Amino acid sequence: MLTWKDVIRFSVKGSPKPDRRVEKTEAEWREILTPEQFKITRKKGTEMAHSGALCSAHDAGKYNCVCCNTPLFDATIKFESGTGWPSFTQPIKENAIKYEKDTAFGMVRVEVMCNTCDGHLGHVFPDGPNPTGLRYCINSEAMQLQKESSSEKIEKRNR
Ligand SMILES: [Zn+2]
Q: Is this structure's pTM higher than 0.85?
């Protein structure tokens, strides 16, 4: 389980190596993303609070990177933060997320990106719920929800 200490260490010393890398030119990203997705993921934009479609999603499944489809978060670790952005307490895997210190707007924050394609996702804060204390605050537009199929659901229930 990751804690704020790990997040700081990754942002200073570098994040764990991803399983694979996806690299594309700006023109190639523009072709596969909507203008809003492009602005957020490739230009480090932020959507308006409460505007994202995934903010109030409660379906079981995985939240994948909208750019490269790598799973980033599981729906079971999503929580209602009241901030207006989808919020999570842990990434799906330790090496799914890339961390970087962000000093924009006169604040020191930790930016979180997709570790596979460097797509901007949002920020992580140390004010999340127990036991991790982490709050990954992520733009809806940066992710797509891959809903769990009904057969997977049944399998889980029978486990
Ligand atoms: Zn990605």
A: yes
